[in-house]
Amino acid sequence: MKNVTDSFLSLGHWPSAGSFGFNTDILATNPINLSVVLGVLIFFGKGVCVNDLLDNRKQRILSTIRNSEELRRGAIEQLERARTRLRKVEIEADEYRMNGYSEIEREKENLINATCDTLERLENYKNETLHFEQQRAINQVRQRVFQQALQGALGTLNSCLNSELHFRTIRANIGILGAVGEITD
């Protein structure tokens, strides 16, 4: 073992001009080796690290875009549903408006017809009342005329008739009544 160690030590004492060998001085070779290893790692590993980072970033961006597209589609669907509901509500509002106008027109017609019927009934009632009052007035006038005529006739009869004429009139009337009684038997 001593020979192997001596051979490495002897390698360390070789002159560096024109020959290749190992440098066993750790303090001198370590920064050089580290910079070579880091250079190689950066040169060959940067593609792997950067590619991984870029791939991860690309995946996140694509995922965000997909999510945004899904959200956009959902928003568009909600907008379409809202528009559809709005159209339905507008149609219903138009129907209610038209039905309301129709209902108002029907009520107006019904009110006009009811008012016309009421006016016609009142006119008929007025005419009947006038006719009744005319008939009553005519009857009152007839009664007064009849009473006045009767009083005038009685006055004339009383002034013209004496008792003998009175008895004769009574007998003549009794005779007429008797003849009418025989005819009916």
From TrEMBL:
One MF annotation (Gene Ontology) recorded for this entry: proton-transporting ATP synthase activity, rotational mechanism
Main location per the UniProt record: membrane
Coiled-coil positions: 65-99
The UniProt record lists the keyword Thylakoid: yes
Membrane topology, as annotated: Single-pass membrane protein
CDD domains: ATP-synt_Fo_b (cd06503)
Transmembrane segments annotated in the record for this chain: 32-54
Keyword Phosphoprotein found: no
GO cellular component, one term: proton-transporting ATP synthase complex
Compartments where found: Membrane; Plastid, Chloroplast thylakoid membrane
UniProt keyword terms in alphabetical order: ATP synthesis, CF(0), Chloroplast, Coiled coil, Hydrogen ion transport, Ion transport, Membrane, Plastid, Thylakoid, Transmembrane, Transmembrane helix, Transport
Functional summary from the UniProt entry: Component of the F(0) channel, it forms part of the peripheral stalk, linking F(1) to F(0).
Quaternary data: F-type ATPases have 2 components, F(1) - the catalytic core - and F(0) - the membrane proton channel. F(1) has five subunits: alpha(3), beta(3), gamma(1), delta(1), epsilon(1). F(0) has four main subunits: a(1), b(1), b'(1) and c(10-14). The alpha and beta chains form an alternating ring which encloses part of the gamma chain. F(1) is attached to F(0) by a central stalk formed by the gamma and epsilon chains, while a peripheral stalk is formed by the delta, b and b' chains.
Record-stated family: Belongs to the ATPase B chain family.
HAMAP family per UniProt: ATP_synth_b_bprime
Extra facts: In plastids the F-type ATPase is also known as CF(1)CF(0).
Protein name, per record: ATP synthase subunit b, chloroplastic
